[in-house]
Amino acid sequence: MKNTLVFTDSRSVATDTGARHSHVVINIEKLIKRDRSFLACFIEGEFRDKRGILYKKYDITEQGNDILSGQMRGKIRPVDKVYLIQSGFSFKVGISGDVKKREQAINTACPLGAQVSRCYRFSAPSIARDTETRLHVIFAENQTNTEWFDSGGLAGSVVFVQQFNSVCLDYGGEDFTSIVTDHHPKEEDL
């Protein structure tokens, strides 16, 4: 039997996989409900967020980590890609584990239609988040709402894409555009 000492916790699992912490907790609770013997692998606790709100968390033994990994495998993709989705001369900068699925979700709410313009994959979800944050800072003066930015026209769109590419490469991103879109867009495709 594997060590019963705490190996990790639900918050770390969420950060490492790019999953929402609440989803990790739900998966743990499903495991415990299915087999009460798993209670020894998942020790319920609490934590306070920055605002002082109390939330449930679980400390996890090494055996619990193995069990949880099996439960979550295939359900959660690491949020390791930064995408640039274009609709007209507007762009959305975001992160996702499944960019095609994200594009489909955005298209349901976008009257002009939207398509992935660029996508980069990173070696860790934390690097993807840092890259997205940096891009939001760079494009802040063009922000029309939380996630969308106005390029100001065709010339601005070219510059926007060039800046996006440059930042992603600076953060060590691997160009993933052709894998996500089945084509490799060029500036004249804008």
In short:
By secondary structure, the protein is α+β, with helices and mostly antiparallel strands. It folds into 2 domains: 6-72, no CATH class; 81-189. The protein has 7 helices and 8 strands.
Question: Low-confidence spans: pLDDT under 50, at least 5 residues?
Answer: 184-190
Helix-and-strand structural type = alpha+beta
- Please trace the helix and strand order, writing H or E for each element: EHHEEHEEHEHEHEH
State the helix count: 7
N→C terminal distance:
58 Å
Shape verdict: elongated
Sheet with most strands: 5 strands, antiparallel
Which percent band covers the strand fraction? 15-25%
How many distinct folded domains? 2
The radius of gyration over CA amounts to 20 Å
What does this structure look like?
- The chain is an alpha+beta fold.
- 42% of the residues lie in helices and 24% in strands.
- The protein folds into two domains: 6-72, no CATH class; 81-189.
- It has a five-stranded antiparallel sheet with strand order 7-5-4-6-8, sandwiched between helices. Strands 1-3-2 form a three-stranded antiparallel sheet.
- The protein starts with 5 loop residues before the first strand and ends in a 9-residue tail after the last helix.
Task: Describe how the helices and strands are arranged.
Layout: E1 6-9, H1 10-17, H2 21-34, E2 42-48, E3 54-61, H3 62-72, E4 81-87, E5 90-96, H4 99-109, E6 115-121, H5 125-138, E7 148-150, H6 154-170, E8 174-175, H7 177-181
Helix pairs in contact: 1-2, 2-3
